[in-house]
């Protein structure tokens, strides 16, 4: 089944024709056709990451995986799940909850994002501290190469250690090496209890926040998130315009309360604390995961541009990143929502303003972060602006390896052209 695409999407990464395969065999047939006839293919799941990478308005074919969905196999006792790539993340979590289980991943826009897209982008959120990333959750994949060959990487059991872990080749490669058709994941039981401690710092003393974070990280406590929110984001989520540390606990109720008490004991003298129990904690995270730009949302013509950046630094340098964010916001007519993991060093920064100011902000932050030894990746930006900057930053020293792998697997360059590092 195919349909003609309408007008060009402002985020690009579209296709002159959209196809909706319902099986691996149909995907393989489409890829073989494209590979033989020199046609370029863009892959889309839920569309949330449409503004991530790529400098082309439209490929020849937009390959949509929305009809390749559903659970293939759920082994409750072994806590593993095999699922088709086009299945929405939230649908999976709802199905697993009936068995008191879940995927240990937290992603933006879970109602739209598909599991295939999450894995292709190696997505993760603040709970990466306790959960790990997509790479830690995946046991096996089924992938369709550009020549139509269907391969399996990994397996369907947790203890699968024979040979090189081929999964890691495809996780995070942004669909440039093959089409992920099926994913096997290890699961976790739903926590018996969950809470969220919000620790506010009215005086905005980042050194005080650093000292507090070190105490938590050096303790025996096991938060699944230790996330610092900048004042503007904290105000949006909590109503308080103050630096706020969000500390998430998941365990049995007595263990969670014990850890809450520990935070009480070590909290700095002038800080203020709120503790959200189960339902309110979940409501906070539900709101949190809908802050980032959604590439699947209807695009409205406006002078305000929205960009989303992923910033990686040594974990406590998150404080320096948020300091730079504040300096930038104080000196430019822009709005910035920012948060970063004090235990894992990944930050997300959402910048809103005019085209010129947004591009200037990206360059400012990239310069600052590179001086820290970190990196900045642009995860969302309209196409016309992506064409003016390097989304992934400078080519890394190992770029020749990435390029060699791409040339070996996709010598005709048909898949997701320009969506990965260095324009691969």
Automatic annotation (TrEMBL):
Pfam families given in the database record: FAD_binding_4
Species of origin reads Neobacillus sedimentimangrovi
UniProt keywords (A-Z) are: FAD, Flavoprotein, Oxidoreductase
Q: Where is the FAD-binding PCMH-type domain?
A: 11-190
Q: So which domain of life are we looking at?
A: Bacteria
InterPro entries, alphabetically? FAD-bd_PCMH, FAD-bd_PCMH-like_sf, FAD-bd_PCMH_sub2, FAD-linked_Oxase-like_C, Oxid_FAD_bind_N
Q: What PROSITE patterns does the annotation carry?
A: FAD_PCMH
Name the UniProt record assigns to this protein: FAD-binding oxidoreductase
């Amino acid at each position: 089944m195919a349909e003609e695409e309408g007008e060009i999407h402002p985020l690009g990464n579209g296709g002159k024709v959209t196809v909706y395969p319902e099986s691996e065999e149909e995907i393989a047939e489409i890829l073989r056709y494209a590979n033989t006839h020199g046609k370029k293919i863009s892959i889309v799941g839920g569309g949330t990451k449409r503004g991530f990478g790529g400098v082309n308005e439209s490929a020849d074919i937009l390959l949509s995986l929305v009809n390749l969905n559903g659970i293939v196999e759920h082994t409750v006792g072994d806590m593993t799940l095999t699922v088709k790539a086009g299945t929405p993340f939230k649908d999976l979590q709802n199905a697993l909850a009936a068995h008191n289980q879940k995927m240990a991943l937290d992603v933006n826009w879970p109602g739209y994002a598909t599991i295939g897209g999450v894995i292709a982008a190696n997505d993760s959120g603040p709970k990466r501290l306790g959960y790990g990333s997509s790479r830690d959750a995946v046991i096996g994949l089924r992938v369709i190469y550009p020549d139509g060959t269907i391969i399996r990487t990994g397996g369907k059991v947790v203890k699968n250690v024979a040979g090189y872990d081929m999964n890691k080749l495809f996780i995070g490669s942004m669909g440039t090496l093959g089409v992920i058709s099926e994913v096997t994941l290890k699961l976790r039981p739903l926590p018996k209890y969950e809470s969220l401690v919000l620790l506010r710092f009215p005086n905005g003393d980042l050194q005080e926040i650093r000292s507090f974070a070190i105490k938590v990280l050096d303790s025996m406590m096991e938060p699944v998130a230790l996330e610092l929110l900048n004042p503007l984001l904290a105000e949006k989520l909590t109503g308080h315009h103050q630096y706020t540390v969000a500390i998430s606990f998941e365990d049995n109720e007595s263990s969670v309360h014990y850890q809450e008490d520990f935070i009480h004991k070590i909290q700095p003298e002038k800080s203020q604390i709120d503790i959200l129990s189960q339902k309110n904690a979940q409501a906070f995270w539900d709101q949190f995961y809908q802050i980032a730009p959604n590439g699947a949302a209807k695009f409205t013509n406006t002078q305000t541009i929205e960009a989303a950046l992923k910033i990686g630094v040594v974990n406590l340098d998150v404080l320096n990143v948020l300091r730079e964010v504040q300096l930038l916001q104080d000196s430019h007519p822009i709005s910035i929502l920012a948060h970063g993991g004090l235990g894992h060093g990944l930050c997300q920064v959402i910048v809103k303003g005019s085209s010129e100011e947004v591009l200037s902000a990206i360059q400012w932050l990239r310069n600052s972060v590179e001086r820290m030894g970190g990196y900045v990746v642009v995860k969302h930006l309209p196409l016309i602006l992506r064409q003016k900057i390097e989304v992934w930053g400078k080519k890394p020293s190992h770029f020749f390896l990435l390029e060699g792998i791409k040339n070996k697997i996709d010598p005709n360059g048909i898949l997701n052209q320009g969506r990965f590092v260095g324009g691969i």
